Amino acid sequence: MSSSSIRSFEYLESLPGTVFNRLYKQPSTALAIFRRMLPQLAKSFVMAMLYMSRPLPVADLDTWVRPGSRREQDTAVDLLERLQILKRTAEPNKPRSYVLTNPFAASLRQALTGGGNHKSFGVPSKTRVEDEVTITQLDDFARKQWEGVLGYMVGSTGIGLNDAGANLSLSVKHLLKYGRLVEARGRGAEITQDGFAFVLQEVNAQVWTILILYLENAEELGMDRVDVLSFLFMLGSLELGQGYSKANLTDTQLQMLLDLGDFGIIYQSTPDSDSYYPTRLATTLTSDASALRSATAGFDTALRSSNDDKGFVVVETNYRIYAYTSSPLQIAILSLFTRLSTRYPNMVSGKMTRESVRRAINMGITGDQIVDFLYTHAHPQMRKNANFLPPTVVDQIRLWQIEGERMKPTVGFLFKDFLSAAEYEGPCQYAGDIGVLKWKNDAKRMFFVTKHEQVAVYLKSQKEKKREGG
Asked: How many CB atoms lie within 10 A of CB 411?
């Protein structure tokens, strides 16, 4: 599951059952969650059960999976239950069984087979030929608006980013501060550690991060979050370059068109027009990982120059940096931790110093984030070497960071007091598989996790299986 999928899943998991019931009445929402949120094994379970007329016994489901893949089976079933797609049934004198919930199953069947008058996949507008917007125009608009957002975040560096021409509304700036991607410093804003990590994400993950912040802030704006979620999932099913009518949208969704336009996700010729166009940022929202890489290639190309796609940074052992780019955004990011000294039409050069790196660290940017940026954007000539980032530079960046800190706190939960090694190893390995394990001590049978909910559900399911077996 990609990072953007994990973030959106965590938000969905926190919703009450009544919200899921309303969400799943929309076929576009059921299809989007099926496509984006579920691993392949979970998708196989759903498709196999979608047209079953009776519940599936637990023992029959176990026969579908090889004995060596029980952990993957437990993870898939747990995920489906937490998204309220699958539920267990227990009738007298009948074996325990699984059944797909309604309205999810009905909506997914409708999405796959078509038909109905739900209009949850948008209503194409009848636009005159002379008024049609091309895909190139939509990509240019999305690039300008999204670069404007990123440019505002790193604009405290002093590099001029007004070339993008994007006018950010107060609501956009408020949302970035609400999400702690920037902090107010005097009259301006300064990027935070979370903000720098945000800038380093791929575009689709950035968009989902912004949308989750928007969802968390929706109730303060007087919006119905089910309407908001349904509209976001619908956007992922729309066709790039096609205009859609606003006639069937709710008041909440009409307001969203204005807000999402600030981020370049939606295009409208005027706020009063009868139609809207989803940009590439919108149409790839619910793509899976492989489709995402190909679908966003056009926008990524528009966002970055060809040199940037290949890698554009050269790092020398004397801490000097040469960046073959003309992008104001990339130059601004570099200047967060580099003292730039020379700028040419297609290149900038500078040097990482203790002062420049410490300044970035004081803003909340970590040494590992700086190293990751240099690693990701290393020039092809550097990549010809096995260790293409000079080890002396990498070590020194980390040494400059630990000058001011000796300990790094991590908020989480400690699991201990396991009665046997077998009882300890299962949940510990499961925590590692789902990416929440931070520390473990096999000798003392203790482990530390950043989130406990999934591990607790796993322990509960194991106890139930042991009780049934006994």
From this structure: 7
